[in-house]
Amino acid sequence: MNPILDYTLLLCFAVLSVAMFLALWRLFKGPTLPDRVVALELIASMTVGLIGLYAIRTGRDAFIDVAMVLALTAFLAAIGFARYLEKGSHRDDH
Amino acid sequence: MIIDILAALFMVAGSFFMLVASLGVFRMPDLLTRMHATTKSGVLGAGLIMCAVMLFFVDSGVTLKALAVMAFTTLTSPIAAHAIGRAGYFIGVPLWDKTVKDELHGRYDEETHVLRSPEQMQDTQEKP
């Protein structure tokens, strides 16, 4: 593999790890449940990016299918949480 | 060589936008401002990384799958953000204390989910 691409991949993994840690902090700390859901959605979106980078690093294109399925599943999780919040909880009850 | 450098540029740009989204969700004071930070930047970062994937694997099948990932994230992320924001407003998540404008405040009935327009409010005020 081209060394420029190799070092850039390492840099991008490091940056995405820092970003994942920041989103994880919000997931633990977030004052209300919708904040946590937003952080979870961002983590899923970043995982799609990480899988793309990993597919480039290993050179296997089968990982792109995983990214595709994960992008759809994260959407279903967010919709489920929103419906649960709206229909199943009381007002001012976080 | 040139294609590798282009893919590296796309990867760096995508990772940067994801870091910006994560900083937004870490630093912003409010549910709606956090969603404003994550929804757009996260989708843009994933799309740029998928562009890098397309450039690296020069293959039509991979390009189609990466385009499908981009289309799915672009279609689903605004819908999910709309649903979460709506649910968060309905269950009474507090807004930021420096929020300038909340146009639904006082006009929206959370029990019956009926929104009164300003003209209707004037009518009900003038009738008695």
In short:
Chain A has 94 residues and is an all-alpha fold. Helices cover 84% and strands 0% of the residues of chain A.
Describe this entry's structure for a reader:
The complex is a heterodimer of chains A (94) and B (128). With 94 residues, chain A is mainly α. Chain A contains three helices and no strands. In chain B, helix 2 runs antiparallel to helix 3. Chain B has a single domain, classed as Helix Hairpins (Orthogonal Bundle). The N and C termini of chain B lie far apart (78 Å). Chain B is mainly alpha-helical and 128 residues long. At the A-B interface, helix 1, helix 2 and helix 3 of A face helix 1, helix 2 and helix 3 of B. Chain A: This is Cation:proton antiporter. Chain A: InterPro entries: MrpF/PhaF-like (IPR007208). Chain A: Belongs to the CPA3 antiporters (TC 2.A.63) subunit F family.
Order of helices and strands of chain B: HHHEEH
How many DSSP E strands of chain A? 0
- Give the CATH architecture of chain B: Orthogonal Bundle
Number of helices of chain A: 3
Q: Distance N terminus to C terminus of chain B? A: 78 Å
Derived structural class of chain B: mainly alpha
Strand count, sense and barrel status of the largest sheet of chain A are: none
How much is the radius of gyration of chain B in Å?
A: 21 Å
Number of helices of chain B: 4
Principal-axis shape of chain A equals flat
Nearest-angstrom radius of gyration of chain A?
A: 17 Å
CATH class membership of chain B: Mainly Alpha
Strand order of the largest sheet of chain B: 1-2
CATH topology call of chain B:
Helix Hairpins
Tell me the quaternary state: heterodimer
Keywords (chain A): Antiport, Cell membrane, Ion transport, Membrane, Transmembrane, Transmembrane helix, Transport
Subcellular location (chain A): Cell membrane
Organism (chain A): Alkalimonas cellulosilytica
Family (chain A): Belongs to the CPA3 antiporters (TC 2.A.63) subunit F family.
